[in-house]
Write a structure and sequence with these properties.
The complex is a heteropentamer of chains A (about 100), B (about 500), C (about 625), D (about 525) and E (about 240).
Chain B: H1 3-19, H2 25-48, E1 58-66, E2 71-77, H3 79-98, H4 102-106, H5 111-130, H6 134-143, H7 145-155, H8 160-193, H9 200-204, H10 210-227, H11 236-243, H12 246-256, H13 258-271, H14 273-299, H15 304-325, H16 328-359, H17 370-373, H18 375-388, H19 395-410, H20 412-437, H21 443-448, H22 454-472, H23 475-492
Antiparallel strand pairs in B: 1-2
Chain C: H1 2-19, H2 27-50, E1 59-69, E2 72-80, H3 82-105, H4 112-131, H5 135-153, H6 160-191, H7 196-203, H8 208-225, H9 233-237, H10 243-252, H11 257-264, H12 266-271, H13 273-294, H14 300-320, H15 323-353, H16 366-369, H17 371-385, H18 391-406, H19 408-433, H20 450-473, H21 476-484, H22 495-518, H23 532-538, H24 543-588, H25 596-618
Antiparallel strand pairs in C: 1-2
Helix pairs in contact in C: 1-2, 1-4, 2-3, 2-4, 3-4, 3-10, 3-15, 3-20, 4-5, 5-6, 5-10, 6-8, 8-11, 8-13, 10-15, 11-14, 13-14, 13-19, 14-15, 14-18, 14-19, 15-17, 15-18, 15-20, 15-21, 17-19, 17-20, 18-19, 18-20, 19-22
Chain D: H1 7-29, H2 32-59, E1 77-80, E2 85-88, H3 89-110, H4 132-139, H5 147-161, H6 167-185, H7 192-224, H8 229-236, H9 243-260, H10 268-275, H11 278-303, H12 308-331, H13 336-357, H14 360-384, E3 387-389, E4 392-393, H15 403-406, H16 408-422, H17 428-442, H18 446-472, E5 481-482, H19 487-505, H20 508-517
Antiparallel strand pairs in D: 1-2, 3-4, 3-5
Helix pairs in contact in D: 1-2, 1-5, 2-3, 3-5, 3-11, 3-14, 3-19, 3-20, 5-6, 5-11, 6-7, 6-11, 7-8, 7-9, 7-10, 8-11, 9-11, 10-11, 10-13, 11-13, 11-14, 12-13, 12-18, 13-14, 13-17, 13-18, 14-16, 14-17, 14-19, 14-20, 16-18, 16-19, 17-18, 17-19
The chains are: A mainly alpha (about 100), B mainly alpha (about 500), C mainly alpha (about 625), D mainly alpha (about 525), E mainly alpha (about 240).
Chain lengths: ~100, ~500, ~625, ~525, ~240
């Protein structure tokens, strides 16, 4: 099957993820959207690995998962901290730094 | 005496003065003056030591500095730069004497800071004229801004911050365009010579294609035109001059701004001969506009410092005009003009400073009748003014006439029009004199304006003596300048136009 | 020797100016001594010159190289020839007399020392003017006398009118200087030299257009210095200066520099008929204009000033006639120097007696109380209106005759001028010395001291015999011939006809004035219901008004407009650019709205932009 | 496949990361009051040893490292760890620079003399802002010494970032350097809400941008079947008509441009710079930029060098936008840290000129620029941390008025840094600008240089404005005071100032170093 | 249509639906579930792409661990918090959507601009080392060993970060029960403090409890709320409000 389909699917997911970052205000959902983008990248890696007959893509996807896990921890810690001091998980709320 | 040593002297002076303990104001002044005098003497000695048969660089020294960029610490002077260096070096101690109490009058800043900055400025002033490495020139060109910036901003009048800022920004903008052109030139030299260089002599021998020349020329010219200053890049000058102390204004307008015109004659013409020729008509036009514009604006000023500043715009128009006429009279005349203008404008600024320090105002309307209460002051003022309006017999006449005659042979129309400018010069100077010095003194004037002091006379008399001496014996300077302008002409590959009647001119010269 | 001529008065001026108050007590004597010794040097040189043959009389002295750049080579050299000699003697002679006169005239002035310094300075500059051997050095003297004139006109600086008048004189002269500058530049570029000798030698080969232009430029210079139309207006105002100044500078010497210049440059004018015509026209206009202005002035000095303009008009006209007129121009210049100086000194004496009142309507019947003044003034009067054998007759008559030789219209102008001169001089004479006294209260006219009257008497002698001496003893025509060239005047009207006609015209002018001002009472206040012509004459033929309307007011408007433009236009543009950057900045920083999602949006936009540019680059 | 792991070549990275682990263990097991001493000893020793190793690596020709790039064999060239890392001149130079910068930054981080309450970090980052907990921890003088392992990890990540030779390693390194910074940004002692906000923004946008980077890598991988740069470069030579490649290049560029703070990916910079604890801002502004540019150059000079005609126009646009927008917006900034942030955006634009030059000169000019800029930035932020009032740092510009009166030395040094940022001769900034403009003109980017000049002119305005404010304005009545720092910050400022000066006056040694660094290994 | 295609279309569409669901759901928990749904579908796609190990890891790590972490945090910050429909940033949603469309369009356009060459397949690559997992292991511990090792730093950082930001240390020794008892008795509130919202009209944590006499009990509010109030005003820097 033409790998373009997979990569196109990855592109769609990536775009949707990006859109999620733009339009969702809940920091956690925004963060989920980022995860969605990473997943899209993983899909592309996996598809490309098969297409090119190399395993590097799969390794990359594996690493991305590890990195994503670490990122999630840090990110959620930050979100929790913010939530604790502001009682809100809205990403729009912390907007004192501007102009 | 090497040029490096000549620069080192005031630098040491600056450091020493700065390092003096606070509160020892008099000592700081004396030390600074001592250094200024030593530098002046040294510069004069160097000037006298110039080989007048040689138009090229002398006192050359060169040490590798940043070899990666082909940059060296290269110093050397030719006939044009040495006279400017001497002029600067002579002006500095006089400015010190004249501005002895400027800091106290300004009521801001410290005495040692002022004199230390002034000496630092002198270092850069010498450096900018003496650099034979274009990069080094640029470094000094920009570095000069810093002491002046602080001199204006720290010791100036009520609007000093604005004026300092305006000055700095104009200069920086000009300098940045020059930087771009400088780098372009470097790249061109690298392309042509294999390794990029900033060496003056090497650069003058490049064969740059005309289109590139034009672009690079414009970059440099813009910087120089801002510095010079030419209309329409002049508006920083009146503010800067009006807000700074008279001493600062003297060095700013009298010496520093010469860097612009010096750059034109020393760098633009030899390095970009084709572009110089190409743009010459346009620049001459601009120069003529400057002459009139400056003069008319000077007429319209109510502040004496601003008036003098605008008159300088007019004078710079003459200088630029002479340079771009490419004739030996124009080039030598312009160089001489730079020197003379330094002295005459300096004298005017200093006298205006004397007046304003007494009256507490630079406003023309606040004066009147000074002649009656301080006749010597008025006389000095008049002499300075007459020098500014280029009265024959004074040095400025020689240079102005040389510029005019030099321009006339190439651009008769421009010279014709410019000649009319001398009427305006008479008008703004004499009108200012009339309004400030003549008539009956008002109560305020007679109670505040007293006669010129000994110290003030000591500062101003040498300047006036120089002005008159070089009016009668300009040849001493011209003998130094001429070989170099000849060399510039040969680099640009121009010759003086021959008069319509041939054969007789060559027999002239031995005198009739 | 020649240099000493200039050096002595210059030294005097320097000593007096630098010496300050210390020289107050003896300064004026020093000045007189310097001027006098210069005169004696001049006389000595004259005698030396007489001893040489005509061809060898001109001597040059190269002092040093002044300016040498490329082929532009100007020596600091002096040149004493017969023409210069005339001037040297006139300047130092009359100058010394006026120095002496001033001792008395300025006796009570606190700044007398400065006055004498300036007088010395003037003499030095004037001598430099006439002794320079090239046009550029002449220029130095030229402006030097301008400076001295400026300083002396505005000598009483505390009077605003004096300060203004001085400035005006300088500036109007500067307009003329433009001409001189242009002439020198043209000479250099056309002929390659600016020395008198060089120019004279090369002029013949110069393109005629350029030569004509040089002539016009020189004429402009002469107009400025000699108060010729259209640059005449400063001279009347210059009467603000002390009267000796008027006598020396604005009658006898400086104002004649224009004539000197034209004759000095005769090589140029010889070659250009157009330039000569222009000179004649200017001269004719000015001689009529000056005379016209003189007819209506109640201010005795201004009346004389108008007369000066008019007389110099004669000289200029004569100079414009070419070789036939050069000598007569100089001749008239010399005689005029004598009698006009005498007249001015006389006027000064009158003013001295009248408490510095210059209004002739307050005079009258002074012949009894100021006998010497009356006599000397009267002799001068006779000289100026051209009564034989007084000085003016000889020179003026020659000019009228030569003018008729050129052109009847020009001749007619000189003839009319002579009549008008007679009219206004008679009017002056009548109003001052005749009729009933119209003195103001408390004025007790008295004769001036000897130190003042002595110079007047000497000059009166000159007025009487100057013409005769110059014409018959000095043989001025032969004297000047080596300098100005040979002239063969044509006389379409024989002297036998012309002299009586001229005298008739003069007599009728004088007679009319006599009937009008001596036989009828003169109103103390100038009548206002006068003709347009009188009004015009009183207003200096509207010269100032025209200057005002054509130059001053538009100039001031231009200045004001430019000042506005500079602040709002240029500075405004640059300020506007920075304001625009500031505004842009203020708006752009709003994009930084603090919302993370918004930043992400920008980033996505950036990503799209990058993708777009990448694709575009591929195309 | 070469499965060796060249410890010597990778020593700096290994040392840093190991030190991070040790530091972590110190946190876990050492008594509270000995932690600081232990951590500081560890950190400075680590940095010093790592730096020494960089020096050793630079000095020696590694036997296995045969010249890979044809004839141009000068400089050190070696691939390490199975090709995952490239030990080459530029990489080592950047590592050295980073270590020096980190050293100076560590001095700032360790400072406890400025804030009366302690260092720049919250006593306990986990406490609620304003809570009783916070007060108690602060009052009891607790310190969050966990900043040190984070710092060490971050530096280790940077060291790896600049030598990473495949997209995967680069991505991991990116995260290793970023995650600690996200955390550190949120740990300020004062204005904690702002600090936390900075952390959140930095984190969210950083993760967002890494996703772009990653997706771009995936697309490139899809085309070339490889992640390492040399193979990619070799393959891309053949594949030119593939839109995927373009998309990949673009997306990777987004990720990297975000890290360097180029417009339009710059918006995090001012907010994060302002909100973060100032020592972290200093570290971040200097080191992250160095590391990110190092990586960026490697990607574009090695992996995508064959496609320069494709990515150059894009970089032109980005460079122009960065220079102009950075400078323009900085003009109206009223907060000194934000102003410096926007100035850093503009500088990013300038540095991009070196990238666009696509030449050895461009590379060496950039290396020099990064070195110079790093220290100037460190110094500037260090001084920002000294100007304080009761509530902490006084960063509003109006509070800086008349500083020259109150503390002439500090004001003068700051003015010097500003002049360096403005690119005035005799400062490092000028030499750097000069070098990079030269390279750009050589590379045919003259119009860009003109834009750069215009931007510099605009930039000069706001630098000069601060100087005017400091020297020519009267100080406000209740203005802030300048704290006399301990020797740590003083040393940091002094080192920065001296380097800034030396690079302006005698730059030749460093210029030689960057020239000798040679090109990237392929 | 072969099996792979069927799987692709089904799972692909599901994945997109899940993604859309994530960004459309108002409730955060729903979004999380949609994400999990997408991830599972992706895992299936991995399986069909000869990436069995990754598929498994995807389910275990992502769907299992990461998403659960998300859910856990969601629980902390409030399960039922939902985004309001009104967009606070003007034009954000519209411009965002348009930009996303443009970006996606460009992306898809470039992806599909060139037909992929035929798929090589991983059979050979896997065979080199035996199986897929062994192949991966070989790469991870060979070519990508450096990255792998460095990942450890990442994980340590994550752990450390979570601890620093979330772990609340005690600044005083834990009180014994006796101490607590004594303290409570002395405080004047022997009974527990009222919870927020008690007897009030709504039960938000921000609403003070009403005391029997109808007055509000400030004690019922968590200290953080009082703290926020003060912190907000105290730490709001003057410059950012401009």
């Amino acid at each position: 099957m033409n790998p373009n389909y997979y990569i196109a699917l990855a592109g769609i997911l990536f775009t949707i993820g990006a859109l999620g970052v733009l339009i969702r205000r809940n920091a956690i959902i925004v963060f989920m959207s980022v995860e969605m983008m990473l997943n899209a990248a993983n899909l592309a890696f996996v598809a490309a690995a098969r297409e090119t007959g190399t395993l590097d893509g799969q390794v990359a996807a594996f690493f991305v998962m590890v990195v994503a896990a670490a990122e999630v921890v840090v990110g959620l810690a930050i979100i929790v901290t913010i939530f604790r001091s502001r009682r809100s998980a809205s990403i729009d709320e912390p907007s004192l730094l501007k102009y | 005496m090497s040029l490096t040593a000549l620069m080192l002297l005031p630098l040491i002076g600056a450091v020493v003065v700065f390092a003096l303990p606070a509160g020892r104001d008099l000592l700081a002044k004396q030390v600074a003056l001592g250094f200024g005098l030593v530098v002046a003497v040294a510069a004069v000695v160097m000037g006298l030591g110039m080989d007048k048969s040689n138009g090229g660089l002398q006192y050359v020294e060169k040490y590798s500095w940043i070899p990666s960029f082909g940059i060296s610490w290269g110093l050397g002077v030719d006939g044009i730069s040495i006279v400017l260096i001497v002029m600067a070096a002579v002006m500095v101690p006089l400015v010190f004497i004249a501005g002895w109490n400027d800091v106290e009058n300004a009521g801001r800043g410290t005495v040692k800071g002022f004199f230390s900055l002034m000496l630092l400025l002198e270092v850069f002033m010498i450096g900018v004229f003496a650099a034979t490495d274009l990069f080094l020139f640029y470094v000094f060109f920009e570095a000069m801004l810093i002491p002046i910036y602080f001199l204006i901003g720290r010791f100036g009048g009520p609007q000093r911050a604005y004026a300092a800022m305006k000055f700095l920004l104009y200069s920086l903008v000009g300098g940045l365009f020059m930087l771009a052109a400088l780098i372009g030139l470097y790249v061109v030299s690298a392309r042509e010579l294999g390794a990029g260089t900033f060496d003056y002599t090497a650069l003058t021998q490049l064969h740059i294609d005309p289109a590139t020349q034009k672009m690079l020329f414009l970059g440099f010219f813009f910087a120089f035109a801002v510095k010079a200053p030419m209309v329409p890049f002049h508006t920083w000058l009146p503010d800067a001059a009006a807000e700074s102390t008279p001493g600062t204004a003297t060095l700013l307008v009298g010496v520093l701004d010469k860097v612009g015109t010096f750059g034109m004659i020393h760098y633009l013409l030899p390095i970009f001969p084709d572009a110089s020729k190409y743009f010459a008509p346009a620049i001459i036009t601009l120069a003529v506009i400057s002459i009139f514009y400056g003069a008319l604006l000077a007429i319209g000023q109510s502040d004496m410092m601003r008036l003098v500043a605008f008159s300088s715009v007019s004078h710079f128009g003459f200088i630029v005009m002479g340079i771009f006429a490419f004739t030996s009279q124009g080039l030598s005349g312009s160089t001489l003009y730079m020197v003379n203008h330094g002295f005459s404008t300096g004298a005017l600024f200093l006298v205006v400073g004397y007046l304003s320090s007494r009256r507490g105002s630079k406003n023309i309307a606040d004066f009147g009748g000074v002649q009656k209460v301080a006749p010597i002051m008025a006389g000095v003022f008049l002499l300075a003014g007459l020098s500014s309006l280029a009265l024959p017999g004074m040095s400025s006449f020689v240079s102005e006439f040389l510029v005019l005659v030099g321009t006339f042979s190439e651009y008769p129309q421009a010279a014709n029009i410019a000649t009319v400018g001398i009427v305006l010069a008479a008008f703004y100077i004499l009108w200012m004199y009339q309004r400030t010095m003549t008539g009956e003194p008002s109560q305020e004037v007679s109670s505040t304006v007293n006669e010129i002091s000994k110290r003030e006379l000591v500062a101003i008399v040498p300047i006036i003596a120089i002005i008159i001496a070089f009016g009668l014996f300009p040849q001493g300077l011209l003998n130094i300048i001429n070989p170099t302008t000849k060399q510039v002409q040969s680099t640009v590959q121009v010759v003086d136009p021959a008069p319509a009647v041939q054969g007789l001119a060559s027999t002239e010269g031995s005198g009739s | 020797m020649t240099a000493a001529l200039i050096g002595l008065p210059l030294l005097g001026a320097t000593l007096l100016l630098l010496g300050g108050r210390r020289t107050n007590t003896w300064g004026h004597f020093l000045a007189v001594a310097m001027s006098a010794s210069s005169f004696f040097v001049g006389v000595a040189l004259y005698i030396q010159m007489l001893g040489r043959s005509a061809e060898e009389r001109a001597v040059g002295q190269h002092l040093f190289d002044w300016i040498a750049v490329g082929t532009f080579n100007v020596p600091f050299g002096l040149h004493l020839d017969q023409l210069s000699m005339c001037f040297v003697l006139l300047i130092t002679g009359v100058g010394t007399l006026i120095h002496i006169y001033s001792i008395g005239y300025m006796e009570h002035d606190p700044n007398r020392r400065r006055f004498f310094a300036y007088l010395n300075l003037f003499v030095a500059a004037m001598l430099l003017l006439v002794l320079a051997d090239n046009y550029l050095l002449l220029y130095v003297g030229w402006e030097g006398v301008g400076l001295a004139s400026y300083l002396l006109i505005s000598f009483w600086q505390h009077k605003p009118s004096a300060a203004v008048a001085g400035k005006k004189a300088f500036i109007v002269n500067r307009v003329g200087d433009v001409g001189l500058s242009l002439a020198v530049m043209l000479m250099f570029t056309t002929l390659g030299t600016v020395t008198f000798q060089g120019v004279a030698d090369a002029a013949g080969q110069g393109p005629s257009l350029k030569i004509t232009l040089i002539g016009f430029a020189l004429l402009l210079a002469a107009c400025g210095k000699s108060a010729q139309f259209p640059l005449q207006s400063w001279l009347l105002d210059a009467m603000e200066g002390p009267t000796p100044v008027s006598a020396l500078i604005h009658a006898a010497t400086m104002v004649t520099a224009g004539v000197y210049l034209i004759i000095r440059a005769h090589a140029i004018f010889d070659l250009s008929q157009d330039a000569r015509t222009a000179v004649v026209v200017i001269g004719a206009i000015t001689l009529l204009l000056g005379a016209f202005i003189g007819t209506a002035k109640d201010d005795i000095k201004k009346g004389l000033a108008g007369s000066t303009m008019s007389q110099i008009g004669y000289m200029i006209l004569a100079a414009g006639l070419g070789p036939v007129g050069y000598v007569f121009a100089i001749f008239h210049l010399l005689t005029h120097g004598l009698f006009k100086a005498g007249l001015f000194l006389g006027a000064g004496s009158v003013m001295h007696g009248m408490h510095d009142d210059v209004n002739m309507r307050h005079y009258g019947a002074l012949r009894t109380s100021m006998k010497i003044t009356y006599a000397t003034f009267g002799l001068g009067f006779l000289a100026i209106i051209g009564i034989p054998p007084f000085a003016g007759f000889w020179s003026k008559d020659e000019i009228i005759s030569a003018a008729f030789g050129q052109n009847y219209l020009v001749g007619l102008a000189t003839l009319i001028g002579a009549g008008v001169t007679a009219f206004y001089m008679t009017r002056m004479m009548a109003m001052t010395f005749f009729g009933e006294s119209r003195w103001e209260d408390g004025v007790h006219p008295h004769e001036s001291s000897t130190v003042m009257t002595a110079p007047m008497m000497i000059l009166a002698v000159g007025s009487v015999f100057g013409g005769l001496l110059l014409k018959f003893v000095g043989d001025i025509e032969a004297w000047l011939e080596p300098v100005t060239g040979v002239a063969h005047p044509t006389h379409p009207i024989s002297a036998a006809v012309l002299i009586p006609v001229t005298l008739l015209v003069v007599a009728s002018g004088a007679g009319y004035a006599w009937t009008k001002y001596a036989q009828r009472p003169v109103p103390v206040v100038a009548p206002t219901d006068v003709s347009i012509l009188t009004r015009a004459a009183r207003a200096d033929a509207y010269g100032d008004a025209i200057n005002e309307a054509v130059f001053m007011r538009p100039g001031l408007h231009l200045t004001r407009a430019l000042t506005w433009f500079d602040a709002k236009g240029i500075d405004g543009t640059i300020g506007g650019v920075s304001a625009a950057i500031g505004g842009l900045s203020a708006r752009a920083r709003r994009l930084q709205n603090g919302y993370t999602r918004s930043y992400a949006l920008t980033m996505l936009g950036g990503a799209a932009l990058i993708a777009f540019v990448l694709l575009l680059a591929r195309l | 496949m070469n499965n060796t792991f060249e410890y010597a070549a990778l020593a700096p990275v290994v040392i840093l990361l190991s030190a991070g682990v040790i530091s972590m263990l110190i946190e876990a097991f050492a008594p509270r009051d000995t932690r600081r001493a232990l951590e500081l000893t560890l950190v400075f020793a680590t940095l010093a040893v790592a730096f020494a190793y960089v020096g050793i690596n630079m000095a020696k020709e590694i036997p296995g490292g045969a010249p890979l790039n044809g004839g141009q064999s000068h400089g050190i060239r070696q691939l390490a760890a199975g090709g995952a890392a490239a030990i080459d001149g530029p990489g080592l130079f950047l590592q050295g620079t980073l270590l020096l910068v980190a050293f100076v930054a560590a001095l700032l981080l360790a400072e406890r003399g400025i804030d009366p309450q302690g260092d720049a970090f919250a006593a306990r980052a986990s406490t609620l802002p304003g809570s009783e907990d916070e007060r108690q921890f602060t009052a009891q003088g607790w310190f969050q010494t966990e900043i040190w392992p984070l710092f060490l990890f971050s530096v280790g990540g940077m060291l790896l970032f600049v030598i990473a030779n495949d997209f995967l390693t680069m991505f991991v390194a990116l995260e290793v350097l970023s995650l600690p910074l996200y955390l550190l940004a949120g740990m300020a002692r004062r204005r904690r809400l702002l600090s936390q906000e900075a952390a959140l923004k930095y984190f969210v946008l950083g993760a967002f941008s890494s996703a772009f980077f990653l997706f771009g890598s995936a697309l490139i991988y899809a085309v070339t079947g490889a992640l390492d740069f040399s193979t990619i470069n070799a393959s891309l030579g053949n594949v030119t008509q593939d839109g995927l490649v373009l998309a990949g290049v673009g997306l990777i560029a987004v990720g990297l441009l975000f890290k360097v703070g180029a417009v339009p990916f710059h918006q995090w910079t001012p907010d994060v710079y302002q909100g973060s604890p100032t020592p972290i801002t200093a570290f971040m502004a200097a080191a992250t930029k160095i590391a990110a540019f190092g990586a960026m150059f490697r990607v574009f000079y090695v992996a995508f060098s064959g496609m320069r005609w494709d990515w150059r126009p894009m970089m032109w646009v980005i460079a122009i936008l960065s220079m102009l927008i950075g400078s323009v917006i900085a003009v109206t900034q009223t907060d000194i840290k934000r102003m410096l942030a926007f100035s850093s955006v503009a500088h990013t634009g300038f540095i991009l000129l070196g990238l666009i030059a696509t030449s050895g000169h461009g590379l060496s000019a950039t290396l020099f620029y990064l070195f110079a800029y790093g220290f100037t930035t460190l110094g500037s932020f260090a001084i920002v941390s000294l100007v304080r009032d009761a509530s902490g740092e006084a960063t509003h510009l109006s509070q800086w008025a008349g500083l020259g009166k109150k503390s002439p030395v500090v004001a003068t040094v700051f003015a010097f840094f500003l002049l360096a940022l403005a690119g005035i001769p005799l400062t490092s900034g000028f030499t750097a600008k000069f070098a990079i403009f030269t390279a750009a003109i050589e590379g045919g980017a003259t119009p860009l240089v003109i834009v750069a000049v215009v931007a510099s002119a605009i930039a000069a305005f706001f630098y000069a404005r601060v100087i005017v404010l400091m020297f020519f304005t009267e100080p406000p009545v209740d203005g802030p005071s300048v704290v006399v720092p301990s020797s740590l910050t003083s040393a940091a400022i002094a080192i920065s100032a001296v380097i800034t000066l030396i690079l302006g006056v005698f730059p030749q040694p460093i210029l030689d170093a960057v020239a000798n660094a040679g090109l990237f290994v392929r | 249509m072969n099996g792979e295609q069927i799987v692709f279309w089904i799972c692909g569409i599901f994945a997109v639906v899940g993604a859309l669901g994530m960004i459309i759901s108002r409730k955060a928990v729903h979004s999380a579930l949609w994400v999990a749904f997408t991830m599972i579908n992706l895992a299936i796609l991995y399986f069909s792409q000869q990436a069995a190990f990754l598929g498994t890891t995807q389910i275990v790590v992502y769907t299992g661990a990461v998403m659960m972490l998300f859910l856990f945090v969601l629980m902390i910050v409030g399960v039922d918090s939902s985004d309001s429909l009104i967009e606070t940033i003007k034009g954000q949603r519209l411009i965002g959507t348009l930009l996303a469309l443009a970006f996606g369009g460009l992306l898809l356009g470039s992806i599909t601009s060139v037909a992929r060459p035929t798929v090589v397949g991983l059979d050979k690559a896997n065979e080199d080392y035996g199986t897929n997992i062994q192949g991966l292991a070989h790469l991870i511990f060979g070519k990508y060993l450096l990255a792998f090792e460095v990942t450890s730093a990442l994980l340590i950082t994550a752990a450390l970060g979570a601890m620093v930001l979330a772990h609340r240390e005690r600044w005083e020794p834990r009180k014994t029960q006796a101490e607590q008892m004594r303290e409570r008795t002395l405080s004047g509130h022997p009974t527990p403090l009222p919870n927020p919202g008690v007897l009030a009209r709504n039960n938000s944590v921000a609403t003070a409890a009403l005391l029997p006499d109808g007055t509000q009990s400030q004690e019922s509010l968590p200290t953080a709320f009082k703290a926020i109030a003060s912190e907000d005003s105290a730490s709001k820097p003057n410059e950012v409000t401009q």
